[in-house]
């Protein structure tokens, strides 16, 4: 594994840091933002059919001046139309992206394909064999979704390489069973929403810990360090690549500079784990009618909604 990537279960490598075209860029023209990200040094570009901006992502890839083989491009399957195959859907994405393959193709939401996940996955496996998707994986999957997909019954030829989740200190405790399950099956977790404690839930129990670590890193390195970079280092310590986005070039550089910072100490990682476990908060989730097991409660959309759940672990959202 190189310094800036992590090996997947199919032998390929995924970069630690990705620029995403959801959230602030959802349904918007992403060409300028993606072009800026590529020129700053981002090589992993994370898109999705549901974001409705694959065409502008493709334009940026085509005009940024970086060879295709140096980029890692991800997209995700939206809901299929009546009678449409996964292959047909991916071919439409490739046309919009102006590419002949993607490096990673994900099932965006398991709930769209309940009762059909095994069949959908077989179609994904065929796309990997054909070379249209070099690696295949999932997003927002729970343990029961992996089971329905066939991960435990021997029917899977290529296990998912990745599960992309909302992941930050305030979902750390709730996600432990799922993360352990994925590690058992050699599935890499990738994180979106990793900066939630700073931008969507400031004033929470990890704030003081992040600031203490930030000051320590600044003292040791002589460089300016941000709390966002501390969260990036925390994800790196857990072996979790980060998907992030911004429309500000200064933030692009900040995220990239994280790659050159030293690792957190084991004690610092544990302090973030411990304090993050004091609050359960998801920024990218629909409110359920009743409380469900957090290990099987994943976000429904990779974009923020107008409200969020903010309840202590084990407490009903209605309480």
Automatic annotation (TrEMBL):
One of its GO terms (molecular function) is oxidoreductase activity, acting on the CH-OH group of donors, NAD or NADP as acceptor. Residues 22-272 form the NADP-dependent oxidoreductase domain. It comes from the Eukaryota. It holds the Pfam family Aldo_ket_red. Keywords: NADP, Oxidoreductase. The keyword NADP applies. The keyword Oxidoreductase applies. The record marks 76 as: Lowers pKa of active site Tyr. The active site is at residue 51. CDD domains: AKR_AKR3C2-3 (cd19120). Belongs to the aldo/keto reductase family. This is Oxidoreductase. The lineage of its organism: Eukaryota, Fungi, Dikarya, Basidiomycota, Agaricomycotina.
């Amino acid at each position: 594994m190189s310094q800036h990537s992590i090996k997947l279960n199919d032998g390929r490598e995924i970069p630690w840091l990705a620029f995403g075209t959801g959230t602030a860029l959802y349904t918007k023209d992403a060409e300028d933002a993606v072009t800026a990200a590529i020129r700053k040094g981002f090589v992993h570009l994370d898109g999705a059919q549901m974001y409705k901006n694959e065409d502008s992502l493709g334009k940026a890839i085509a005009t940024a001046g970086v060879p295709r083989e140096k980029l890692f491009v991800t997209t995700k399957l939206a809901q299929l139309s009546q009678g449409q195959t996964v292959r047909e859907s991916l071919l439409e994405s490739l046309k919009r992206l102006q590419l002949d393959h993607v490096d990673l193709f994900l099932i965006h939401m398991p709930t769209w394909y309940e009762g059909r996940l095994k069949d959908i996955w077989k179609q994904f496996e065929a796309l990997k064999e054909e070379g249209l998707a070099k690696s295949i994986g999932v997003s927002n999957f729970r343990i029961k979704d992996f089971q329905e997909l066939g991960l435990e019954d021997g029917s899977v030829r290529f296990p998912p390489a990745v599960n992309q989740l909302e992941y930050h200190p305030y979902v750390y405790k709730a996600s432990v069973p799922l993360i352990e399950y994925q590690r058992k099956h050699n599935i890499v977790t990738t994180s979106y929403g990793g900066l939630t404690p700073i931008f969507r839930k400031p004033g929470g129990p990890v704030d003081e810990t992040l600031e203490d670590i930030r000051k320590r890193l600044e003292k040791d390195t002589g460089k300016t360090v941000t709390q966002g970079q501390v969260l990036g280092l925390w994800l790196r310590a857990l072996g979790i690549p980060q998907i992030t986005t911004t429309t500000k070039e200064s933030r692009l550089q900040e995220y990239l500079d994280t790659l050159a910072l030293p690792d957190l100490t084991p004690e610092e990682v544990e302090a973030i784990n411990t304090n993050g476990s004091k609050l359960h908060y998801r920024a990218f989730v629909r409110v359920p009618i009743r409380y469900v097991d957090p290990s099987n409660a994943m976000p429904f959309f990779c974009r923020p909604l107008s409200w969020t759940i903010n309840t202590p672990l084990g407490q009903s959202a209605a309480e």
